[in-house]
Amino acid sequence: IYLAALLGNSLIITAVACDHRLHTPMYFFLLNLSLIDLGSISTTLPKAMANSLWDNRATSYQGCAAQLFLLVFLVVAEYCLLTVMVYDRYVAICKPLHCRTLLGSRACVHMAAAAWGSGFLHAELHTANTFSLPLCKGNVLDQFFCEIPQILKLSCSDSYLREVGLLVVSACLDLGCFLFIVVSYVVLVSAGIALLS
C-alpha cells in the first residue's frame, strides 16, 4: 500500500510538472496535495515497517520530536490545502468570470504558501509545547509513532493544560475549515442543481 501511494503521488507530481496543459490552479493545488501526501505517508510508515521487520519499537527522543513535528505539519497543511482547493472549485463553478482575477498564479502561490505556513506554525507550536513538558512516567509509548496524546500521558506536570488548550484551539480551527468545506460543497451542489434545472 505504501509503494502504491508513493507511485500514485509521484505520477501525479510528474504529470502536472511535465504537461503544460495541466498548469492551472486546480492542478497546482493537486500537485501540492500530492507532495503533502508523500510526506505524511513517509513520516510514519517506513518506521512502522522497520519496527515490524526487526521487532524493535524504539524511537529516539529527537526522532520522536521530528516525527511529531512532521506529522502535525503535514496533516495541518493538508487540511488547509483542502480548504483552499474547495475555494478554487467554488470560484471556478460559481464565479467563472472572476476566476482569472481571483485565482491568478500569484494568488494561487500565496494560498498554497499560507497552507504550508499554517502547517509549519501549528507544528512548531505543538512540538515546542509538547516537548517542553517534563516526562516523568517513563519514555515508552503505546504506539509505533509519536503523537501528542501519548506523550501527554507520560507527563506528570500540571503544565500539560497549556498543551490541552493548544489542542482545543487547533480543534476549533479545524472545525472552522471543516465547516467552510461543507458549506462550500453545499453551495456547489446547489449551483449544479440550479444549472441542471
Instruction: Please state the overall shape, judged from the principal axes of the Cα atoms.
Output: globular
Residues in helix, %: over 70%
What is the mean predicted local confidence, pLDDT? 85
Q: What is the radius of gyration? A: 20 Å
Given as residue ranges, the uncertain stretches (5+ residues, pLDDT < 50) are: none
Order of helices and strands: HHHHHHH
- Let me know the number of strands: 0
Put simply, the count of helices is 7
End-to-end gap = 42 Å
Biggest beta sheet summary = none
**Helix/strand structural class:** mainly alpha
- Which range does the strand content fall in? under 5%
Describe, in plain words, how this protein is organized in 3D:
The protein has seven helices and no strands. It has 197 residues and is mainly alpha-helical. The mean pLDDT is 85. Keywords: Cell membrane, G-protein coupled receptor, Membrane, Olfaction, Receptor, Sensory transduction, Transducer, Transmembrane, Transmembrane helix. It is a multi-pass membrane protein.
